[in-house]
């Protein structure tokens, strides 16, 4: 007569969890739409080109500057300053030469020189980042102007198609007539500057005390 093996409920619950943990679950990757994938590849290509054009000196400067922003650099500075001060305040009987006694003039000079080098490295890195940002803003401006021109052309074609279709009632749409014309960036900029100047003048008049 065979005995029925009584399984512990706890073990029965742990076995599926162990199997799931040991198995490698591969989640299916959802493919990106073609336009989105192309846009991501274009951005990566632009970033790769910018990194490829860097000189060796620029790479070294940016690598050192990136180290400045890490917490490890702060700990190194604190450790260096602490050791410097401790070695110079110990009594002479500990056989330590006080190379920079209080008020630690050499420490002040070293920190000043380090600050100058750090500031220069950060400025060099920021200068390149600003150039990249300027190029990207110019690219975004060109694409926006091109998109605006395409939209204006599409509106003009739709209006022309609406006039030609016999089953569509022809009517005058003043808003569509305006939107058919691509906006001139110079005119928009002049109007914006004029509006801003008028608003600033009104604010200044309100701030002046009543005479």
Report on the architecture of this protein.
The chain has helices at 9-22, 34-52, 56-68, 71-89, 105-164, 174-179, 185-207. It has one domain (55-202). It is built from seven helices and no strands. Helices cover 73% and strands 0% of the residues. Helix 3 (56-68) crosses helix 5. The chain is mainly alpha-helical.
Q: What key attributes describe this structure?
A:
mainly alpha; 7 helices; elongated; disordered N terminus
Q: In short, what is this structure?
A:
With 211 residues, the chain is mainly α. The protein has seven helices and no strands.
Biggest beta sheet attributes: none
Helix content: over 70%
Mean pLDDT: 76
Q: Work out the helix count.
A: 7
Given the helix and strand composition, which structural class is it?
mainly alpha
β content, as a range? under 5%
Q: What is the CA–CA distance across the termini?
A: 114 Å
Q: List how many beta strands DSSP finds.
A: 0
Please trace the helix and strand order, writing H or E for each element. Answer: HHHHHHH
Gyration radius from CA atoms, angstroms: 35 Å
> What is the number of independent domains?
1
User: Which geometry do the CA atoms define?
Assistant: elongated
**Unreliable stretches, pLDDT < 50, 5 or more residues?**
1-7
Topology diagram in text:
Elements: H1 9-22, H2 34-52, H3 56-68, H4 71-89, H5 105-164, H6 174-179, H7 185-207
Helix pairs in contact: 3-5
